[in-house]
Amino acid sequence: MALQVRVAPSKVVLQNLLICVILFYTVYYLVLSVGCMALQVYELSVLAPFDFKTCPSWLNTSYQVLLISTEVTYFICGLLFVLIVEEWVWDYAISVTILHVAITSTVMLEFPLASHWWAALGSGLISMICGGQALACCLFKDNFIYPELDGF
Question: What is the pTM of this model?
Answer without folding.
Answer: 0.84
